[in-house]
Amino acid sequence: MQKNILRHSLKNLLKISWITFSVVGVAILVFLSEWIQKAGIISFPLGFRHMAILVLFLINWVIFGRPIILNKFYIFNIILIIIYLILARIFVPVKLFNYILGTGFTFLFIGLFVLGSNTKSDLNVVIKILKILLLFFLIMSIGPIIQGLLAHTSLRRLPGMFRELGAFGSAMNIGVVLTFSLYVMTGEKKYIFYAVFLSFGVFLTILKKSMLGNIIIWLVFAYYYLSSRNRIKLLLYGIFFLLISFAFVGDNVKKDVKLNIDYYNRVGPKGHVRVAMYVASYKIAKDFFPFGSGMGTFASLASIIGGYSKVHIDYGVSEIGGNSPIIVARGGHTLLDTYWPHILAELGFIGATIFLLLWFFPLISSIHLMRLCNDSTIRGLCFYIILITIVMTNDGFTLYNPEIPSFVLLHSGVTGLCYYHINKYRTNITK
After folding, report:
1. 347: CB partners within 8 A, 6+ apart
2. Distance CA 203, CA 208 (A)
């Protein structure tokens, strides 16, 4: 009997160690991969990051998974989008390679969520993953923030080891999400201090969307977790925090806002890169009703692989900013400066609606459970899912982050691991 207990304990220890090590290890690898590549250490092939996270979650599901169990509404929408994509391929002339590639990149989040939510992990595994990821983001933030403070400047040229400043701002916001989730679980005040530090890093970027995202995170946290009295305290502390932040980067923020206003006034909505992409995506969805222009045709990575999609030229976005075929071929272009236009244009109005139902399903499900749940750990996991979805949705308006593998891993893969325990808890309380 003692041997059986020892064997069972050893098996659980190996499971905890492997899932934790594999998820955190691959997360750090994909986050640092572009810096590693730029440094000339290793050159990663196209699609390596996508395959790395997909294979990781597939292996963990094969070893520790259960037969796939999904919510009926979620299954219905998956079937619906599959049928829709098959019909779109028939009626919309798109190169098969680009169509498959575009579909794979765009819907990777579903695969990771399904595999993650059906991988049987210990609750301590998920908590440990969240803690290590927070530690990673804290370490990654120290260098740029100290440099910004010493230079008394914004982090516009100081993204650290992240691929660019937008990725740094998003990572810092995700760090804040992690701190709040862990604070809800533990009640330890150190996590609030971590949140303040990471938020300061966000404001040093002077990126408006990152600052807005950070404020939204704090507001959601205050709404769901704080009492009315503590909300007032948070408001006062928040005003003080903003004054301190703008004492460092206020001039830079003013200059950046002025530059953006001048740019918009000079070129108008048709010449503004991001605005023009949204206008074009609406026209494409309308002209190619009901299926859109097809996966791998507009404002997506797949639309510039193996050639430059003609849709960009037909709708005039190739002439805006750094979107031209020549600049795209050189790299450093602006064609992937925003995410949601590619969803609307390539999937059309109907397909984009189904996409959003799948995208927001974990968030909606977690909000419903929050109203019934008194378990602090489960509430912390719900917080993570709600806030990570909000951050990625907000980022998608001005960045391509929702389809960057490192962020997909966090907003769908880790969300899936959290959802397994949320769903397990829901099942137990409804018995």
Report:
1. 84, 88, 291, 292, 295, 354, 355
2. 9
Residues 143-163 pLDDT 10s: 887 876 666 555 666 555 666
Tell me the three state secondary structure of residue 122: coil
Cα end-to-end span (Å), the chain: 32
What are the contacts of 382-386 at 24+ separation with CB within 8 A? 382/422, 383/177, 383/180, 383/181, 383/184, 383/221, 383/224, 383/225, 384/130, 384/177, 384/178, 384/181, 384/414, 384/415, 384/418, 385/415, 385/418, 385/419, 385/422, 386/220, 386/224
Q: CA-to-CA distance for 18 and 25, rounded, in angstroms?
A: 10
Is the peptide bond preceding residue 45 cis, with omega within 30 degrees of 0?
Answer: no
Cβ contact 107:53 at 8 Å: no
Check: CB of residue 183 under 8 Å from CB of residue 230: no
Query: Alpha-carbon dihedral of residues 310, 314, 319, 324, nearest 10 degrees?
Result: 0
Burial status of residue 72 (CB atoms within 10 A of its CB: 0-12, 13-18, 19 or more): exposed
User: pLDDT per residue over 412-422, tens digit each?
Assistant: 999 999 999 99
Q: What is the pTM of this model?
A: 0.89
Point out which residues pair with 395 in neighbouring strands.
none
Q: What is the DSSP string of 23-71?
A: HHHHHHHHHHHHHHHHTTS--PPTTHHHHHHHHHHHHHHHHHB-S----
